[in-house]
Amino acid sequence: MSFGFSIGDFLAVIGLANKIRKEFVDAPSQFKAINDEVRNLSFILQDVEVDLSGKELSDTQKSELQAITDSCRCVCDEIYEKINIYRVLESDHSTGLRRVVRVWKRLKWEPDDIQDLRARISSNIGLLNAFNGRITRGNVAELLHRQDETERQAILDWLSPVNHAVQQSDYLSRHQPGTGQWFIDSHRFRTWVEKPEQILFCPGIPGAGKTTLMSLVIDELYKRYGNDSDIGIAFIYSNFKDEWTMYQLLSTLLKQLIQRQPSIPSDLKDIYDYHHKHGTQPPPEDILCCLDTIASSYKKIFMIIDALDECRSSIESRDRIMTTILNLQVLHHVSLLATSRPILEISDRFKEMPTLEIRAPNEDVQRHLRNHLGRLPRFVSRDAGLQDEIVTEIAEAVDGMFLLAQLHLDSLVGKMSPKALRNALKRLPTGTDAVNSAYKNVMSRIEGQVADQVELAKNVLAWVVCARQQMTVLQLQHALAVEIGENYLDQDNLPEVEDMVSVCAGLITTDARGGIVRLVHHTAQRYFEQTWMDWFPDAHSKKPPPASPTSRLISTKLNYNKRSVWRNFLGSLALHLWKISRYF
């Protein structure tokens, strides 16, 4: 227990009550009532000691229990003193020995002072019972709350396994301080925030920093309205590896809006109970009904859909998704902000609506570059003029593309002299094919590494590029560690995360919180889809050579019969193969 006073004080009162009970042995009937009260006090004190063991009490509860304990100790002390008043010394001849013992006086009725003490004991018993009852009710309420929270989290995870807070934190962590403020300060963004039911479409070229900018927008909304329960905030970060369905869209939005509510709607609980029991997925119409219900409880909803162009769906499906989003905007006071590459089929849906193009200002690109100059050779840090050249030349070459600026900066990392670095600056690719040229230069740098590093880099890239879904770092490590002919996964064969990332020369990034490994940008995926025959030609072949990731997976699978797979399923390679096989 933690009462703010020594546990010994509380146990001392219990000991004193038990001592008094022993003193009342053979007491006249006139003392029976107070003996019973002392016994009851002893029992309730012990109950409180047991019930509160290991519990952390509030300061108020500690003070209350301290006062009751002091009162109990005081009345017990007085009772013990009174006992001696009603007993006298007499000679005891029962054993044949001469000795003096205390015996109870013969009384005709219960003394008044004993009646008063009995009333005080009864009062303390009542206080202890009331205190213990409140604690018990509080424990029950806490237990029920925990059960409700467990059920709540289960329903939220069932709607969408994505941890949107972690996702938002990951993207926001890539934001460079001071960049993107032009967007937040723009008249069109302020109008979108301050006026009801606004739509703002934000097209932007690939690599312009749209996703990072949206993380800044979401952060701004939470700063303004995070504590306002009447304002809903929901967002979706699309990824080129994810194939969006209507159900995923609606359930993702529903999850985030429910998270800002104190309880789960009963109709959603019913849907969850039924489909969780049967292992089925509800139709989108059921989720849409729940979304309508929860959306109606908000005065205003901010909805951000990033990278509509990256929704890996058919044109018909994407059109249906956009129609649903726009219908939600009209029905539920939604302020909608959507980003996309300038694709005609998407732009046409927003052609009558306010538009704010996303293109990184030269100042933001320069600020980004200056924040990363520390990665360049040491001679750069000693030459302020060279630093200015680097920042100016790259910023002018990239035309508002953060991604290209980063790739160009990375290309300078290995330069050994100012002259070599300046020559590289003069050869920076520009124009419409600049990104692909930059990726080609990165691959050339990768191939310039030692043989083992080249092999690791190409295997990492092959797995990440060819996987149909995003892979975790651990899954990728296991995929790379599999060796043909081995019947177990050797933990000593797992490559280090830092090595996997570094040998890929900036093409691979990891989500520090979610554990996802991904290409640096969706344009890298498109580049490798066009050029994979140049870099890892065996990755998609039907009969790949043993060195390729696909053949390693297939050959390893074929080395296992059903019995060994089942026997080792939970603890060895079979589990990893099953996980990895979903990606191909």
Automatic annotation (TrEMBL):
Q: Which InterPro entries match?
A: GPIID_WHD, NACHT_NTPase, NPHP3-like_N, P-loop_NTPase
Q: From which domain of life does this come?
A: Eukaryota
Pfam families referenced in this protein's UniProt entry, alphabetically? NPHP3_N, WHD_GPIID
Q: Which UniProt keywords apply?
A: Repeat
Q: Which residues form the NACHT domain?
A: 198-342
Q: What's the protein name?
A: NACHT domain-containing protein
Q: Which organism is it from?
A: Aspergillus parasiticus
